[in-house]
């Protein structure tokens, strides 16, 4: 079955592009589309079919993946640019962008109203650009159980693990939990390094002492290495990280989650000062100055 699955990937940014490349490497026929054509052309050089429009991309697809910035971008592709109308009956649409609870409900309504014969999966991913390139994302999948075998080879190409968490909409809820934990870990690393700096400690010594600690995950260890090198090139840009934290805060009483709200305000100030394109660990630099 894996060889017969034709996959369309729409959105080839920092996450979508490596995801599409891994699907290609898994031997699945892949067609790609992106608003900026250059990433699609590069994947074309690796064997992908390059489409001129979302409608063209999905016309013969068995599985459609959207991986874009926000809910407005998803709606634009699906409705305004003709993706939904061009999909065949029974096609799986794996919506993998992080768009929050209300954004996912908006997409579900769109499918119910316009294409109830399409199978919608809500399947955001946990992980940043590095794990995406390595095929080590975790897919937080939700939706009808009957299509799990069909989508399995695609999710296996993208990630090291797929966690099925319930009906469509559950995946986006779990992603918000993941995003908030990730934000606290990143902030904890930044504040710890900055605190060491305030105490007069050498940064390399602090980083070395923290690495290998039972408190430090594989993801955090990689971030520590990059902080130690003063490397804030974007793996997970701060502008996207604050977007995801804000999506989480939209769903709760922020007065009950004062620490998360304070973190969001601090990160927003950094974005307002032009640091949104840097990795979220650039908060280390902000705290040290």
TrEMBL record:
List each copy of the 3-hydroxyisobutyrate dehydrogenase-like NAD-binding domain by range. 169-286
Q: What are the catalytic residues?
A: 175
Query: InterPro entries recorded for this chain?
Result: 3-OH-isobutyrate_DH-rel_CS, 6-PGluconate_DH-like_C_sf, 6PGD_dom2, 6PGDH_NADP-bd, HIBADH-like_NADP-bd, HIBADH-related, HIBADH-related_NP60_sf, NAD(P)-bd_dom_sf
Q: Which UniProt keywords apply?
A: NAD, Oxidoreductase
Recorded superkingdom: Bacteria
**One of the record's GO molecular function terms:** oxidoreductase activity
Q: Which Pfam families match?
A: NAD_binding_11, NAD_binding_2
The record's Gene Ontology biological-process terms are:
organic acid catabolic process
Domain 6-phosphogluconate dehydrogenase NADP-binding, by residue range, is 7-166
Family stated for the protein in its record? Belongs to the HIBADH-related family.
Q: What is this protein called?
A: NAD(P)-dependent oxidoreductase
In its UniProt entry, the species of origin is given as Micromonospora globispora
């Amino acid at each position: 079955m894996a060889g017969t699955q034709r996959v369309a990937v729409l959105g080839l940014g920092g996450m979508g592009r490596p995801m599409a490349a891994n699907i290609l490497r898994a031997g699945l026929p892949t067609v790609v589309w992106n608003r900026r054509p250059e990433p699609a052309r590069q994947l074309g050089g690796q064997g992908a079919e390059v489409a001129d429009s979302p409608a063209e991309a999905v016309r013969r697809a068995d599985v459609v993946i959207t991986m874009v910035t926000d809910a407005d971008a998803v709606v634009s592709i699906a409705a305004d640019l003709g993706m939904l109308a061009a999909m065949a009956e029974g096609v799986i649409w794996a919506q993998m962008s992080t768009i929050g609870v209300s954004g996912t409900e908006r997409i579900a309504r769109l499918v119910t109203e316009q294409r109830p014969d399409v199978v919608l999966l809500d399947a955001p991913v946990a992980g940043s650009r590095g794990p995406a390139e390595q095929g080590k994302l975790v897919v937080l999948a939700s939706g009808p159980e009957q299509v799990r075998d069909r989508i399995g080879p695609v999710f296996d190409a993208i990630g090291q693990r797929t966690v099925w968490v319930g009906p469509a909409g559950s995946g986006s809820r779990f992603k918000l939990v993941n995003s908030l934990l990730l934000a606290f870990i990143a902030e904890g690393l930044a504040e710890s390094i900055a605190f060491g700096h305030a105490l007069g400690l050498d940064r390399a010594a602090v980083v070395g002492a923290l690495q290998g600690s039972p408190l430090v995950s594989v993801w955090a260890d990689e971030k520590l290495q990059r902080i130690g090198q003063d490397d804030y090139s974007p793996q997970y840009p701060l502008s996207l990280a604050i977007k995801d934290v804000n999506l989480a805060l939209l769903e709760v009483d922020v007065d009950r989650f004062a620490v998360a709200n304070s973190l969001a305000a601090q990160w927003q100030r950094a974005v307002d000062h032009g640091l949104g394109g840097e990795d979220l660990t650039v908060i280390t630099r902000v705290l040290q100055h």
